[in-house]
Each structure stands twice: as C-alpha cells, then as structure tokens.
Amino acid sequence: KEERIVVLETENAVLHLKLAEYQGLAGRSANEVLQLYAAHGQQMKFQKSSVVTQLHGAIKKRLKQDLKSLHSLALELSKDFQRQSKTCLYQVLAAVQRIQLQNEAMQKFQIKAFDLEQSLQEVTERYEKEKQKRKALHNSLIELRGNIRVHCRIRPLLPFDDAAGHSQDRQRNFAEKVAYAADDETILVKCSRPGHASVNKTYQFERVYNDLESQDAVFADVAPLLTSLLDGYNVCIMAYGQTGSGKTYTMLGPRLEGNLAFAIEEESELGIIPRATQEVFRLISEKPPGSYWVEVSVVEVYNNEIFDLLAKDSCGKVFGVKRDVVTTREGKSDVPLLTHETVENASEFLHLVNKGLQLRVTHPTLVHAHSSRSHLVVTLTITTVVFGENFGTLWEDEQTSQRLNKEASFTFPQKMRDCKSTSSSRASSPVHLEVTEKIKQVKTRLQLVDLAGSECVGMSGVTGAALRETSFINRSLSALADVLGAIAEQRAHVPYRNSKLTHLLQDSVGGDAKLLVMLCISPGQKYLTESMQSLGFGTRARQVQRGQVKKKNFPVPSKGK
Ligand code: ADP
Ligand code: MG
After folding, report:
1. In the chain, how long is the greatest CA-to-CA distance?
2. Do residues 283 and 226 make contact, with C-beta atoms less than 8 angstroms apart?
3. Beta partners for residue 518, in sequence order
4. How far does the centroid of ligand 2 lie from the alpha carbon of residue 299, in Å?
C-alpha cells in the first residue's frame, strides 16, 4: 500500500506537473492567439493605409494633371477674352464715332425739322384760311347760281331726222344741222327763214354738251349734286325738251327694242337715273352702316293725274293706281299712300324702275301713244337716322345741321321694325317713338324727272284725246315755268299748286333745294322752232336767282363748273 501510495503520489505529481505544463501551454497559446489578433489587426490597418495612400497618390496625380490642363485652359481663355474684348473695344469705339456723327446729323435734321414744322404750321394756318375762303366762295357761288342750273345737251343727228315735215318746207334740207355747241357754255343756233338771211343766235348755259359727249361726261357734272343730297338738300334733275330730243336717253339710257324699259346691261350707256342711284349708294357706303336707307317711288303724271307705278293689287300684281298730292302741315308736299319700296342697292332699284316703266305700256288707264305724253318722276327718299346727341356731327356745316335739326322728327323708323319690307306702303304719318332711346330721322329727296315732250306748247290743230293730252302738258309745263318765274322774282307766293307736276316737285324745286334742268335739243333744221322754245325756257329758268344773292350784287361767274 505504501508503495502503491508512493507510486500513485508520484504519478499524481507527474500528472500535476503535466497539468501545470498543459496549463502553461494553454496560457501561452491564448497569448499567442491575442498576439495573432493584434498582429492581424495591425496587418489590416497597414493594408488599409497603403490603399488609401495609393488612391491618394493617384488622385493627387490626377488632380495635378487636371489643374494643369485647367490652368492652360484658363490661360487660353483669358487670352481669347483679351482678344475678343479688344475687338469689341474697337467696335465700340467705331460705334461711338458713328453715333457722334449721327448725333451731329440728327441735330442738323432736328433743326431742319423744326424749320419745316414751323413752315408747315404757317402753311396749315394759311390753308385753313384758304379753306374757309373757298367754302365761303363756294357758298356764294352756289347762291349765285340760285340753286338752279341749266345744262343743255345737243343730241347727234339721227336717221329719222331726214323725214320730211310740212309740205311747204319740202325744198328745205331737214337734216341740216342748225344747233351746235360753240364751246362748253354756249350753244349756237342758225336761224334761217326762207327769203331771209340766216341769223346766228347764241345762248349761254352752265354747261353745253355737244353731240359727241358721252353719258359719262353728262353725269360727271351731275354727281356733285348728289353730295349735296347727302348733305341734307333736296335735289331735282329734270330733262326738258321736245319728243325725240334725247330726254329719256339722257335720264335713263337707250331703250330696249319695242319697249319702254331701258337696257340695264349697257353700262356705258346708262343715263342719269341709274348712275345717280349708283352714286348715292356709293356715297352711303362711305357713311356709318345702318344710318341711311333708301326708298324709291315711281310715278307718272298724265293728264294732271298722278299714277303710282309701283302699287300692287292684292295678288301682288303691279298696276297703276291714281294718287293725290297734298301739302302737309309743315308745308311739304306729300303723296298719301304712295308706294315706297326699300332698295338696298342700285340693281334692285333699276329692276324696280324698269318694272314700273313696263307698266306704262300695259295698263289700260295709261294707254297713250307715246311715253312722251306723260311726265315720269322717279323719287329716291334718303332717310338718315341719328341717335340722340350725335345729330350735330353728321353734317359738316353748322347751318345745315341746325336747319335739319329743326326739321328732324323724333320718330321710330319703320325700317327698324320691319327690316326688309320689299313692298310696304309707307304709313302716311310716321310711327312715333315708343322706345326709350330717341332716334331722329331726316328725309331728303332726289327727284329725277323725264318731262313730257315740250313740242305741244303752242301746238294747234289737234282734237279729241290728243288735244286733252296736249292741253294738260301745255298747262303743266307752263305751270313749271311760272313756278320758276315766281322763285326768280322772289314772290311770296309760288304757285306750286297750279299743277300736280309742280306740286309734286315743290320740295325739290323751291327753298334751298338744288335743281338741274337738262335741256335736250335736236340739232336738225326740222325742229328749229321747238329747239328755240326749249332754249327760251332754259334761259328763263337760268335767271332764277335767290335770296340775298341778288341784293349782294355779285358778278355772275361765267363758268358753271
Ligand atoms: P325723248 O325721250 O326726248 O323723246 P329719246 O331719249 O327717246 O327722246 O331719244 C330719241 C332717240 O334718239 C332715241 O333713239 C335715242 O336712242 C336717240 N338719242 C338721243 N340722244 C342721243 C345721244 N346723245 N346719242 C345717241 N343717241 C341719242
Ligand atoms: Mg322720252
């Protein structure tokens, strides 16, 4: 046992030693592990720092390169900039020099402009004065002409002028021309009687047209009257002369074959009536839209009776209806119930007039051998609508404005209610205003007259219906002459009512209305007596002078244009 204990103790000691050894070993390896960790950590640190430095180096290198190129670029740029700024500077300098030059020129111009402005002002002042003077002169000229002017048209010799007349005159040459336009104001007539030396007589008118003058030329002298029409004056244009002297040709144009209507298609041949209508519509087109409108009526005065050629029966068929002419409370002439058709343009008007003219041949009560047995009166009524205060601004001269302001009626125009009534018998009293806004309307009239043939005056040896016609024409034409005479002598009473014709024309013949008498003359020897009679009528009408003019005693201007 003891041995055993010793062996075991030895063994135990050995084991203890071994344990101690192993414990030591274990402790050392733990240390080693720690050391290794530390070494690993250091290794890692070291590794990291070396990448950074490498990167750093690379970046640095790169940066250096970039900086270098940037530097060179900047250098380049600044050089470029310098270059450019230099050129700019040169340019600026050049511009400044130019501006200086221009400034100098401008100053010169300014001085010049100032001078011009001053002279312009002077000229404008002078022009204004001249304008006033011209206006005044024009007014006195119009007054001097007495608002009545007489033009004379000689038609060309025509084949039918050859036909022989009275038997005792057979040896004479009927086609011989005896009436000439000596100049554009004088007509010369060779008066010869068998067994007597021929005598040259001359007559002066505002305008004389020779046989070659066109419809255009005739209308050119008529057109200014239409300006007066839109200025607020009534205008009348009438053709006077014997049958066949060119009245209808002058007023309407050449006839259609075998018809009383005229050829609308022949533009250049159109007479005063169609051209005047075109001109009226042209003038209206220059005015504010809607402020003007035009109504037309066509009447015939036959045997001192007035026939409405636009009246329609209940079926809408046109037939001539007898009308009467009356004097209104305002002293104006009016034909109650007369058909007034609204027209919007010249061609509408022409077709309407042609329709009326055709009626003259077909209607039984109007049967007469020739249209020259009646007076044809085409009336254009221009209504001007003005809203409230604008009234005074419509007419340029104050006098007209004031006059029309007095005449204007506060009415509500029918057109406003019934915008396009193609066939409306105008109510004899205007429809009075019922709305809040006041509308004034002024009516001016253009009357275009193709008078009956004047050859009947003093004619004898006719009987029956022809005698009746003749005496009516005689009376109406002498009533016209009387009216013009009364106006000439400034008589208080003008006998308008002596005939339907003058009563109908009252407003566009008297007062401050403008009248143009177109004397139509046949140039042939055959018509010498009638031509002389027409020239006598024209000469008397021309002596008509009005108002203050006579008293002022101005020299009468020789030229009527
Ligand atoms: P009135 O109406 O005076 O009776 P018209 O106008 O009917 O006369 O004219 C008679 C004829 O003379 C018509 O054939 C017409 O064409 C012609 N005539 C009238 N005046 C001229 C003129 N200036 N130029 C050419 N022909 C005309
Ligand atoms: Mg005729």
Report:
1. 218
2. yes
3. 151, 239
4. 15
Backbone φ and ψ for 163, nearest 5 degrees, come out as: -55, 135
Residue 543 Cα to ligand 1 middle (Å): 28
With H, G, I as helix, E, B as strand and everything else as coil, classify residue 287. Answer: coil
pLDDT tens digits, one per residue of 290-308: 788 899 999 999 899 999 9
pLDDT band at 249 (very low <50, low <70, confident <90, very high): very high
Cβ-contact 287, 382 below 8 angstroms: no
CA atoms within 13 A on the CB side of 246: 30
Residues with CB under 6 A from ligand 1: 155-156, 158, 241, 243-249, 254, 372, 453, 520
Residue recorded with tokens 């018809």: 259
Adjacent-strand bridge partners of 322: 307
Query: What is the CATH code for 148-159+175-388+438-543?
Result: 3.40.850.10
246 carries a ligand binding annotation = yes
**Alpha carbon distances (Å) from 40 to 51, 119, 156:** 17, 109, 140
d(CA 439, CA 539): 44
* Ligand 1 atom, smallest distance to 153 CA: 23
pTM for this prediction: 0.68
Q: How confident is the model at residue 429 (pLDDT cuts 50, 70, 90)?
A: very low
HSE-CB for 455 with a 13 A CA cutoff = 19
Q: Does residue 181 contact residue 209 with C-beta atoms inside 8 Å?
A: yes
> Closest Cα partner for 498 from 475, 528, 532, 522?
475
> What is the H or E stretch that residue 282 is in?
helix 272-285
Separation of alpha carbons 361 and 357, rounded Å? 8
For residue 378, what are its two tokens? Answer: 């085409």
Cβ count within 10 A of residue 486 = 18
Q: Which residues pair with 262 in a beta bridge?
A: 255
312 CA → ligand 2 middle, Å: 25
